[in-house]
Specification:
Blueprint: E1 3-7, H1 8-15, H2 21-27, E2 33-38, E3 44-49, H3 59-69, E4 81-90, E5 100-107, H4 113-128, E6 137-143, E7 151-156, E8 162-163, E9 172-173, H5 174-180, H6 182-187, E10 197-201, E11 207-210, E12 214-215, E13 227-234, H7 237-252, E14 257-265, E15 269-271, E16 277-282, H8 283-290, H9 296-304, E17 309-313, E18 316-321, H10 331-342, H11 362-376, E19 380-381, E20 387-388, H12 390-396, E21 417-418, H13 423-432, E22 440-450, E23 453-463, H14 469-482, E24 488-491, E25 497-507, E26 510-518, H15 520-525, E27 532-538, H16 539-543
Parallel strand pairs: 4-7, 4-14, 19-22
Antiparallel strand pairs: 1-3, 2-3, 5-13, 5-14, 6-13, 7-10, 8-9, 10-11, 11-12, 14-15, 16-18, 17-18, 20-21, 22-23, 23-27, 24-25, 25-26, 26-27
Helix pairs in contact: 1-3, 4-7, 9-10
């Protein structure tokens, strides 16, 4: 969860209060936060906020929320907004690169060192969380007086545009930024495979931003900056609108005046949009959900303490929420804020109206029994990631290829799907442990995902100079006998095993597992220099049709 650093005196100044330090710090966790640290000498504080409230990722956003929560300024905070004559043209070339952009102007800002630090920290926190490390959202903050509107957002060849990026003195092309600049190297994977790169240019072809990588040095924000231009680019329209609202209103908390810009191109309109979102709460249903007995007017008071405007309409409450509340998706989210505004400390203690007794699932009891058995057989238990790769699951170990659940945006190609077999995971363990003494005998009772459903498997593996088919056959028969399962063994023909040294485990005519000596090609693929034997069993299949006898 993101940790926000701020000066407590700065927070109290933005709140407009002279409350004691402990009064403020003691109650901040009640809105959804975890207190980290406070230095009473420097007044520097660190608070960890829940990830569902990105509007609190700055001292300005926190001050706005606390003014309502502490009854200093109840209700919905609104901002004056006017239209500017600034236009941004969005060209079709960005469609396949980074398709969405919004922007805003903020005039008359007064930024001291604390304000700039807070703005930069908010930018980075939003990049890291909502922005998925800039893959989904990237924010640019610029000194408007250093550039000339109108602006254009377009995609260009990597070598066609050069500019001086932040923290550098010499001009670089877009391609050079990705190779030579620290931020370019950090985020260049976001543009992998793209033939064109996105840029924002002004009327004089000066580069404001190379999203999602870095801004130009020309528009660096300083304490002398009076007027700001904000751009937010990304891959999701709703998300970039929400992020723009958070950034604009945070700056406006320090006295800036927000102005809209006009977008022209395939995406037309004016941004930002700071219209409140409307909700309708059913009072009886809300009370039933929370175990309360609030009148409509009392429920309205709880909501105004959370920064809403609310008015009773019979047995319902009409609610308007702030445009910065990106976390509000369902009416249940508003109900939760009724509880927070009421005060968790006011709920008191009560016994549950019904008693339930928790218990371990049958599958977990079987898994624990199997673990104890395998330890008794002299094997070491390992735990590996459910994330795997298609190369590991179907190429290095030549299993027949079946549909696997794929990860849309994998961090690396080593983790691009959910595994359907455990044996490849154990081979990776042996590869990483090949410098250890032999014999090595390991097992895992873990999850695989087949047809989008989790299943519990057992996999066992042994590596040493005399490892052979007979050893694994004896182990497989011993495990099945301990589980009270009547099984039969049939010759198998799987490419991952040496021909003639593979067997299938069948229960009631259904194949539930396989074992044998791994083929030299598999052993070589994992750089192992000794014979390897393996056994994998589907515990889910084993349990079906066996009643309670396996427990």
């Amino acid at each position: 969860m993101p940790v926000i650093n701020f000066n407590l005196e700065d927070l109290k100044s933005l709140m407009g209060t002279k409350m004691e330090d402990h009064e403020v710090l003691d109650r901040i966790p009640m809105i959804g936060a975890d207190f980290h640290d406070f230095d009473p000498v420097t007044k520097e504080a660190s608070i960890e906020f829940f990830p569902n409230r990105p509007d609190l990722y700055s001292v300005e956003g926190l001050a706005r929320a606390l003014r309502s929560f502490f009854d200093i300024e109840l209700g919905l905070r609104t901002y004056d907004i006017s239209a500017s004559d600034i236009v941004m043209k969005v060209e079709p070339s960005v469609k396949g690169v980074r398709p969405y952009v919004v922007g805003a102007v903020i005039r008359g800002v007064t930024l001291d060192d604390k304000g700039i630090r807070s703005l930069m920290e908010l930018q980075e926190k939003l990049h890291l969380t909502v922005g998925r490390k800039r893959a989904k959202v990237a924010i640019g903050v610029h000194d408007l007086d250093r550039v000339s509107p109108p602006f254009v957002y377009k995609a260009v060849p990597p070598g066609s545009v050069s500019f001086v990026p932040l923290a550098k003195e010499e001009p670089m092309t877009l391609a050079e930024v990705l190779e030579k600049h620290e931020k370019g190297r950090d985020y260049k994977q976001l543009l992998d495979g793209k033939e064109l790169y996105p840029v924002i240019l002004d009327a004089d072809n000066e580069v404001l931003s190379f999203p999602p990588i870095i801004n130009g040095r020309l528009t660096t924000v300083t304490t002398q900056t009076k007027n700001l231009f904000i751009d937010v680019t990304g891959t999701d329209q709703n998300t970039i609108n929400g992020v723009l609202n958070i950034v604009c209103t945070s700056i406006a908390e320090r006295g800036g005046v927000i102005e809209t810009i006009t977008l022209r191109g395939e995406e037309k309109g004016m941004t930002p949009n700071l219209r409140p979102k409307q909700w309708l709460l059913d009072v009886d249903r809300t009370n039933a959900s929370l175990g309360l007995d609030l009148e409509p007017l009392a429920m309205c008071q709880c909501l105004t303490r959370m920064g809403y405007s609310a008015e009773p309409k019979g047995h319902k409450v009409k609610v308007s929420s702030s445009p910065v509340r990106m976390d509000l998706i369902h009416v249940a989210d508003v109900v939760e804020d009724v509880a927070i505004g009421y005060g968790y400390e006011n709920f008191g203690n009560s016994r549950p109206v019904s008693r339930t007794v928790g218990g371990e699932r049958r599958m977990e009891r079987v898994a624990d029994l199997v673990r104890q058995m395998m330890v008794g057989y002299g094997h070491w238990e390992v735990t590996t990631l459910t994330l795997s790769s298609t190369d590991e699951q179907f190429c290095k170990v030549p299993y027949p290829e079946v549909p696997a659940v794929e990860v849309l945006n994998p961090v690396s190609e080593d983790h691009n799907c959910l595994r359907v077999h455990l044996i490849p995971s154990l081979l990776t363990v042996l590869h990483k442990s090949k410098h250890r003494d032999l014999p090595q005998r390991v097992f895992e009772v873990g999850d695989v995902v087949i047809d989008s459903k989790r299943r519990k498997h057992l996999a066992v593996m042994s590596i040493h100079s005399k490892a052979g088919f007979t050893e694994m056959k004896s182990l497989a028969e011993g495990v099945l006998k301990e589980l009270g399962v009547q099984c039969s063994l049939a010759p198998g023909d799987m490419a991952m095993f040496i021909p003639g040294r593979c067997a299938m485990v069948k229960v009631n005519g259904r194949t539930v597992g396989h074992f044998g000596e791994l083929h030299p090609q598999v052993i070589t693929a994992y750089e192992l220099g000794h014979p390897v034997i393996a056994f994998e069993l589907d515990l889910q299949d084993l349990m079906s049709g066996r009643g309670e006898k396996i427990i």
